[in-house]
Specification:
The protein is flat and about 100 Å long. The protein contains 23 helices and 29 strands. Helices cover 35% and strands 19% of the residues. Strands 9-8-11-10-12-13-14 form a seven-stranded mixed β-sheet, with helices on both faces. A hairpin with a 4-residue loop joins strand 27 and strand 28.
Length: 708
Amino acid sequence: MSGGARSAGFARLFSPRAIAVVGASGDPHRIGGQPVKILQETGYRGAIYPVNPKHAEILGLPCYPDLASIPQPCDLALIAVNAAAVPWVIRDCGLAGIPFAIVFSAGFRETGAAGVQLENELKAAAHEAGVRFLGPNCIGTMNLHDRVYCGFGAGFANPHLKAGPVAFVSQSGGFAFSVVGLADFEGIGFNYVVSAGNEADITTLDLIADFLERDDVKVVVSYIEGIADGQRLRALGRRALELGKPILTWKVGNSDAGRAAAESHTASMTAGYALYRAAFEEGGFIEIEDVHDLVDAARAFSSRRLPRGPNVAVLTTSGGSGVLIADACDKHGLKLPRLAQETIQAIEPLAPKYSSFANPVDLTAQVTGDDERFNRICERLITDPNIDQVIIRYGAVQGARGEAWANGLGAIAHGSDKPLLVAWSRVPDRTEPAIKILERQRIPWLLTPTRTANAAGALYQFARRRQALATRVSRSARRVIEPRSLDLPPDSRTLSEHESKRVLAAYGIPVTREVLLAPEAVVALTQPPLPFPLVVKIDSPDIPHKTEAGAVRLNVRDLAELKRTSSEVISAAQRHKPGARINGILVSEMAEGVEVIAGVVNDRFFGPAVMFGLGGIFAELLQDVSYRFAPLDLDTARDMIRAARTHPLLTGYRGRPALAVEALAESLARVSLLAVDHADRIAEIDVNPLFVSAAGVLAADALIVLRN
């Protein structure tokens, strides 16, 4: 059996010694008619036992009436029967000592309420029988390492698919196996491919966890529509970094549908994909968008080398290709620094006349045909202390010349721990000796200059996250405030601004000075409750967005204006939402500074997630936000602030004074701790705007949503 020791849990699923096919048929047009034929034709070396009481023989094999009649223990049952019969078959698997099943049958929760009930019956039967299963409603699995094709459909028709150190878990079965075929055409092999189906038992995350621990898997690919355990997804991302195995992630279904129902700005901007992206950015995930991304990243990571930093040297015989690569590198945060002077001095005597020694290094077409000289220059570049990885593009080399050139590159690559990537410059021929040598030497070759730079970016992205994880592990995550008890209402509700600010203040988050007054108390005022200028707002738990309701007045400068605007905001609130509960008039000090937004959504899959970005009325329009998962330490909060594009506004842009970024980081950390400490009650926190000035921070508005 293949796989590492820690993968023993699923070893019999992917490398079964014997397989029962329940619902087997001799009709190749039926789902049950395909698995036996596929297993026979694709090289499975174990025993195959068709099960169907209607047949005595199928495709030359004895056919058994039930699982109990099979003369030898099986590790796996393939189930292709009517959906209603599947729970009974699973129970029979338990009685026959079969530990795993793959359920091809459809007709479960994807069909509606009746299907949901049937799927629950299936799960209960599997639990009672002690059987683990994939599906239902899946098309199967491949173990190309051991030539075990357990499935049906066109994707299983090619017995010659290439094996390789990649595992693919997909929530779309048909799509996955078409991708495998396309990747195989470009030379990428998979040791394992799995269609997860409805995931009623074994989940995508279970499979990713298993594949990460296997010795014969170096890269995991996952096509994800959605997962039910965001915290485990994050844990797998961390494990991927620890093991140095990237998870190439194809995340789909990232639309904004459903955000309109959110109560707060924070919730509306963190629904859906934003939290997946935050999980991907902190862990060992590399997002891909098409088959060529998968191919290129898988090939790049095959080198088993990661860059120490962002610096790339580009060596080319085409100035145009160098410009393309430089532009693409910039999109990934890669830098093309000046080469060390000793490197320039070493390559100058080797280079043709009119070469450029800036980075990219352009040797011009004059060097074409002098493979040894090209490789000597490449070797000098890869030893440059300013360089972390090298990209080369060297014209059309082929035949015996190509072999010598590729062997020379192999020697260079093995003499360095830096990645070396080749931008192939012509239509690839899989019989080309140079390509075979590059693959054998684990030197990634990519079809275009841009794709090569994208692959270099993926390597850097993964390496940077590994370094960030090491930094997080090494530093002390000291809390900025110990847990505080809160006197919260017992039911699910939205707190008013005044109530929300009191909760923030309990965690040491600065809030504006304010007074809550009844309307009649405002009318009776003879002195202002606070120094002018003031802000006048409605305080209502039923009106979370006061600006939209017209229930806010700024820069109120005298007592008469205070009384008039108080009447105006009450009228506006009543027009906006008749019957809204009104606690009173909130009179507060004016705050100044740059407006930012800070908030938390306690997501049902990921738990509390913190959002930070440009605030005020433009928060949703500009979407300049960054995300991290709570709790935050101060270093993580600082990183979060720097991640926003508007960060320069806080640090002294164009001669303006630097603002209190450190106080802002501490407030973000405190908000995150408030959310974590009271995660059982707090569903959302929205602080918008949070004003940042040179003197500090001040929460001018807030909203907290409770759950019970």
